[in-house]
Model the fold of this input.
Amino acid sequence: MAEFKDVSPNAPAAEKALNWIDNRFPLSKLFKEHMSEYYAPKNFNFLYFFGVLSMVVLVIQILTGVFLVMHYKPDAAQAFASVEYIMRDVPWGWLIRYMHSTGASAFFIVVYMHMFRGLIYGSYRKPRELVWLFGCAIFLALMGEAFMGYLLPWGQMSYWGAQVIVNLFSAIPFIGPDLALLIRGDYVVGDATLNRFFSFHVIAVPLVLLGLVVAHIIALHEVGSNNPDGVEIKEKKDANGIPLDGIPFHPYYSVHDIMGIIGFLLVFCAIIFFAPEFGGYFLEYNNFIPADPLKTPLHIAPVWYFTPYYSMLRAITSEMMYALIVCVLAAAYLGATRAKISSTLKGVVVGAAVVLVVLMLAIDAKFWGVVVMGGAVVILFFLPWLDNCAVKSIRYRPDWHLYLYVIFVIDFFVLGYLGMQPPSAIGERVSQVGSLFYFGFFLLMPWWSQMGETKPVPDRVNFTAH
Done:
């Protein structure tokens, strides 16, 4: 049994209360480990706002979601009407609903920026591989949460978007039709689907999401935060064991982050009050029309944060399969001739490539589109082992690496834009090239990341007081 600590009988009531809690729960210890005695690099820039902003948006989504559930009816006959009731009759219901819908897009904006910062500064590199893996799992859970929540308003785009995406699972060989039926709970998207998605959106996925966020933060604080220079501050400490280039997270960054939070909330509130639909990107106009199974919208497209992956899905046509086969054979050739592996392993690589090519020819292109769409997210999990550059941060990599990252970001935006547009011949070609570049960026990273001459990395972080 732990020994209880005592305080002076004349101590203030607040100190006595804190001591009573500390004797039963390590509140002060947790605060010190994760706030006041957690030393973060002193050279953080504005890109490091997006981590705490992700937490802020998560809190907004949970709180607004709780109030929405109080009035929402997960019933195909009443769902749309209950949303209208929230918007028109519930006091401040319109504000809560718009905070939640805008928060969904805001969540993806800050998470994409958070991941971009990790990408350019090498925050996925040793010893932070597990931090990155937890982060990618959070992103995957967030996508599931957003997709299932998108069905709940039961508008035209909600209904038909869910119909299209769920039907994609039927393309999986052997188990596809049964899997799609299990997800829908019926032969078409209906009341059973709505109840399934509601349960997962409100209970199951948020619990997983919260657990992953806690694991992400614990893993981060165990190894310490990265910084724009990619220098490990724990390697240079003073006589007391305190990093020379570190400062306590509290009060320095806890106060510093308040500025970023205020700036974010100003923009967030401006969108809620003046442009909650954001030109149809945050809330599609078709979703203000009740779901009608007998009337298909002219153009079905997911919300903007899914469109890059949807564009990759549409890019995989029967014609595109031949380009993918060439890529598989080229990758097998490079692996068998350039890699320093045994002859047996080279034979295995070639054999696996041949089997994959046969499967690609035998199975419908629709299935491989689903594989490509899922693979675009799954490949992020392997990033710590794909990057072989001698340095972490983009600051000290060859200059042409920066241009490659810029092209990658532009490619992602172009794919996102094309995913919103109706199918077209030229759009299909561009999305195919963009998809090949997206995967080529990661799959060829073990080679191109080693190319070029890196710049000298400083022993200490570059920091100018401001």
The chain has a mean pLDDT of 90.
